[in-house]
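User: Just a sanity check before I run the rest of the batch. Below are the structure tokens for the first item. I only need the designed sequence back.
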């Protein structure tokens, strides 16, 4: 769906993004991580067709966005960090206006109703946008981004400034959108990525430092396991489902395990019980992403393999 090939952007003589390669398929949610100033927003603007790369190409469905800019307007939904809202309009009026901009005059009412339903805006559709809470304004911004059913949805810090309840609802909404669209989510908040995304890419100083699938409990996932008796690495490697085993903080009863493709946490749990290891805890290992992110952000890692 989306391909970035050797994409760079120079602003005011400074290289903001350098030689960026990324791919995204329909049905995937990609989390674009990085500290402030890492190049995330610039990358999203190039993906959305707002900025032209200084070098390289951004392709949507195989077509270069620079050569065919109308594809960006038709095939991409973009929500910048500050939603471009007209606060003097009601929610329904604003979305109807956006529908006309997208050329949906004939089916604008249907498109507006669908976007309002998907974004949970039914109770506020007749209220002025200026009178809404920040959480509802973010939902209105997301509604305008998905109004025309784009193939690609680009979201820049959508949960910024939201309270925990609002952020949770927005994450659920983004996760749902990933079923029917390709989604790029830019953030520096790790819980947003862990809750919403299938894959993660980490930028630092404009360079892609890490890219890969998130660790999960499915095939190829990384798990944290605690058992009742001390074990050795070879005990774990004797299990067909385990490809690597590392003791956690030197404790021979706590391990970080990586599963082989084709195996799940359920099959691992069954094997642990069968071998009499004494299973006390088995959970998804999410701290790996935090460790990678902090190593890159602190400058202690110049590159981390996926």
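Assistant: Here's the designed sequence for the first item:
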């Amino acid at each position: 769906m989306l391909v970035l090939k050797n994409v760079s952007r120079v602003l005011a003589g400074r290289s903001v993004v350098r030689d960026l390669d990324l791919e995204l398929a329909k049905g995937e949610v990609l989390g674009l991580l990085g500290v402030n100033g890492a190049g995330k927003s610039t990358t999203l603007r190039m993906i959305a067709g707002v900025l032209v790369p200084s070098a390289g190409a951004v392709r949507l469905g195989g077509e270069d966005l620079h050569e065919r800019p109308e594809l960006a307007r038709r095939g991409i939904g973009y929500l910048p960090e500050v939603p471009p809202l007209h606060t003097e309009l009601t929610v329904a009026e604003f979305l109807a206006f956006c529908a006309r901009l997208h050329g949906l005059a004939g089916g604008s009412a249907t498109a507006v109703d669908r976007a309002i339903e998907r974004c949970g805006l039914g109770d506020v559709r007749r209220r002025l946008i200026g009178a809404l809470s920040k959480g509802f304004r973010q939902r209105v911004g997301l509604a305008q981004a998905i109004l025309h059913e784009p193939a690609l949805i680009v979201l820049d810090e959508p949960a910024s400034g939201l309270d925990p309840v609002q952020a949770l609802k927005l994450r659920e909404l983004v996760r749902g959108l990933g079923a029917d669209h390709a989604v790029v989510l830019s953030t520096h908040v790790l819980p947003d990525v862990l809750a919403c995304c299938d894959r993660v890419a980490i930028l630092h100083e404009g360079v892609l430092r890490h890219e890969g699938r998130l660790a999960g409990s499915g095939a190829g996932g990384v798990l944290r396991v605690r058992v009742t008796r001390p074990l050795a690495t070879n005990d774990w490697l004797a299990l067909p489902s385990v490809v690597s085993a590392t003791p956690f903080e030197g404790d021979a009863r706590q391990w970080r395990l990586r599963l082989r493709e084709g195996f799940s946490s359920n099959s691992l749990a069954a094997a642990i019980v069968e071998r009499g290891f004494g299973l006390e805890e088995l959970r998804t290992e999410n701290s790996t992403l935090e460790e990678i992110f902090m190593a890159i952000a602190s400058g202690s890692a110049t590159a981390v393999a996926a």
